């Protein structure tokens, strides 16, 4: 910007304070002053070493993790403090500020208050709209992130910062509203679903950015819920799920969720919440790495937390029973991620590629395939398809789980391919399951991974539509065209689906007609390929200046163009998205 350039001051009121037409009575929360800034305390070490480690539960206070090695505090404790008990790694952290229902709000300045007000951080939607988003969250998201006390939240979310201290953290309320908005749209709201989620994200994210909430555990949950939101950009490096999950995992590891609480002072409920949160992080970190083709943040060799089991799931309310389908979904998904995690370990590139290492990798791949089949054969009845007439019927949970399984089959069998037919059948199965959910009106409620997995299956259909075998090409084109309406629906709320739809819709149109002279399937010119890709994605950039969002699809086109072998294309293309 030149020194003489002046920005015109905006007179427009902030749009984040309302969700538009239909949000008739948004509510402003009266925020009381919070605690001092914990991070600015200059007596933390003195207070920490002076405490009696037998006093106070880590569930009631901010907690900290101190391992047996590489920590100076552990070294100082026996001499300058009261010492540490063996095999205890979790302690109250100084300054000793008691958590209020999981929250330690920070005292903010008037300037900070103004910025938070501008973002709508202290505003909740109209009660009916908020109730709808909260209901949608617990019905359609919570089973994948089962770490919030449903009964307590539903009963108390209208009382944040109340005198009795029973209201949930404001950050948690805003994050739940955001997550609920990603799977359901309130019929009263007129704005597009994507815009509504964008405004709710701005409210929640402002509380994190300005460090309003200091409680580390609440920050973990908030970032987990942020990962369900995909903004209007395809950049999954500095925003969206990849970044949100990475932050959540780092905070969790700093808090010590990867280690068993052992003899630390913590009640059963607190231990259970930590345990479920850790395995939830493992589930989403594994699937995110699996879909994006990137390294994981969590490795099982670093953890000694007990495996999740059915007994860890309490009923949502007193007198109720845990939802069998939700419990089966989560536990089955965790077990599937064990297999995926081992498979990803076998593909890690570390070390020289010796004959022994290559052989060990091949053995691991074969073992993963066998374990995958064993996992599928052992699925509980709630996670298998039911027959309705001539077609298979899937619930939201059995559908998402089976889509993930089929995506695993596609990738497992695309490395050192032995059975191309199995890859084809699994790709078709993904589209079939999505069709079942689409016909039930549930497709918009699937988690983000299913969107990527539908794109994976459609890449397979697109490749088949270019087969020299006319019958294979016709079937591939039919499968592609059948799946396009589903991808189009998802594109209304997801930027990845939007770009994928524009690309694959163009592929279908070109496959159904005579290819033009500059068709990149026929041309060898990179310039023609670039021009076609820009035409598909609606870009006007010069060659070499690649927009981040279109990079995925340029890579996919080049892969399909350069690798006619079906298995090679399938294993590489998904890793670019």
UniProtKB/TrEMBL annotation:
InterPro entries, per database record: Amide_Lactam_Regulators, XnlR_reg_dom
Keywords per UniProt: DNA-binding, Nucleus, Transcription, Transcription regulation, Zinc
GO molecular function list: DNA binding; zinc ion binding
Protein's recorded name: Xylanolytic transcriptional activator regulatory domain-containing protein
A Pfam family per the record: Fungal_trans
Residue intervals of the Xylanolytic transcriptional activator regulatory domain: 241-314
Entry's Gene Ontology BP terms: DNA-templated transcription
């Amino acid at each position: 910007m030149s020194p003489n350039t002046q920005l015109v001051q905006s007179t427009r009121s902030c749009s984040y304070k309302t969700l538009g037409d239909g949000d008739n009575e948004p509510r402003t929360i009266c925020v009381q002053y919070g605690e001092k800034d914990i991070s600015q305390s200059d007596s933390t070490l003195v207070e920490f070493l002076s405490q009696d480690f037998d006093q106070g539960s880590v569930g009631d206070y901010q907690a900290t993790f101190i391992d047996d090695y590489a920590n100076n505090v552990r070294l100082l404790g026996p001499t300058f403090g009261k010492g540490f008990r063996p095999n205890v790694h979790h302690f109250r952290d100084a300054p000793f500020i008691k958590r209020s229902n999981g929250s330690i709000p920070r005292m903010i300045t008037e300037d900070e208050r103004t910025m938070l007000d501008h973002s709508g951080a202290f505003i909740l939607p109209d009660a009916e709209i908020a109730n709808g988003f909260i209901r949608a969250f617990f019905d359609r998201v919570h089973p994948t992130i089962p770490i919030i006390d449903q009964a307590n939240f539903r009963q108390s979310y209208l009382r944040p910062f109340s005198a009795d201290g029973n209201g949930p953290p404001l950050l948690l309320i805003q994050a739940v509203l955001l997550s609920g908005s990603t799977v359901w749209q309130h019929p009263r709201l007129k704005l597009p679903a994507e815009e509504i989620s964008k405004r709710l994200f701005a409210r929640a994210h402002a509380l994190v950015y300005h460090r309003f909430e200091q409680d580390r555990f609440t920050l973990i949950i908030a970032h987990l819920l942020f990962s369900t939101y995909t903004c209007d950009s395809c950049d999954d490096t500095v925003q969206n799920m990849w970044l949100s999950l990475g932050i959540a995992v780092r905070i969790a590891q700093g808090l010590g969720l990867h280690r068993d609480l052992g003899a630390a002072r913590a009640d059963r409920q607190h231990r259970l919440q930590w345990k479920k949160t850790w395995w939830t992080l493992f589930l989403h970190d594994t699937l995110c790495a699996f879909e994006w083709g990137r390294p994981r943040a969590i490795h099982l060799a670093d953890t000694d937390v007990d495996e999740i089991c059915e007994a860890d799931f309490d009923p949502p309310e007193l007198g109720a029973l845990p939802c069998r389908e939700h419990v089966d979904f989560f536990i089955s998904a965790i077990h599937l991620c064990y297999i995926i995690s081992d498979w990803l370990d076998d593909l890690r590139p570390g070390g020289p590629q010796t004959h022994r290492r290559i052989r060990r990798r091949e053995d691991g791949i074969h073992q993963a395939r066998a374990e995958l089949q064993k996992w599928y054969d052992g699925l509980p009845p709630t996670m298998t398809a039911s027959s309705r007439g001539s077609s298979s019927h899937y619930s939201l949970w059995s559908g998402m789980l089976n889509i993930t399984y089929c995506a695993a089959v596609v990738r497992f069998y695309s490395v050192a391919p032995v059975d191309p037919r199995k890859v084809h059948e699994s790709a078709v199965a993904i589209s079939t399951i999505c069709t079942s959910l689409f016909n039930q009106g549930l497709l918009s409620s699937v988690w983000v991974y299913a969107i990527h997995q539908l794109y994976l299956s459609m890449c397979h259909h697109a490749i088949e539509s270019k087969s020299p075998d006319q019958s294979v090409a016709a079937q591939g084109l039919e499968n592609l065209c059948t799946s396009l309406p589903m991808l189009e629906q998802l594109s209304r709320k997801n930027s990845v689906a939007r770009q994928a739809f524009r690309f694959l819709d163009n592929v279908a149109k070109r496959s159904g007609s005579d290819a033009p002279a500059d068709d990149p399937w026929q041309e060898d010119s990179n310039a023609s390929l670039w021009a076609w890709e820009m035409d598909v994605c609606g870009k006007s950039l010069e060659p070499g200046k690649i927009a981040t969002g279109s990079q995925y699809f340029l890579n996919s086109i080049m892969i399909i163009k350069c690798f006619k072998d079906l298995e090679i294309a399938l294993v590489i293309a998904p890793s670019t998205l």
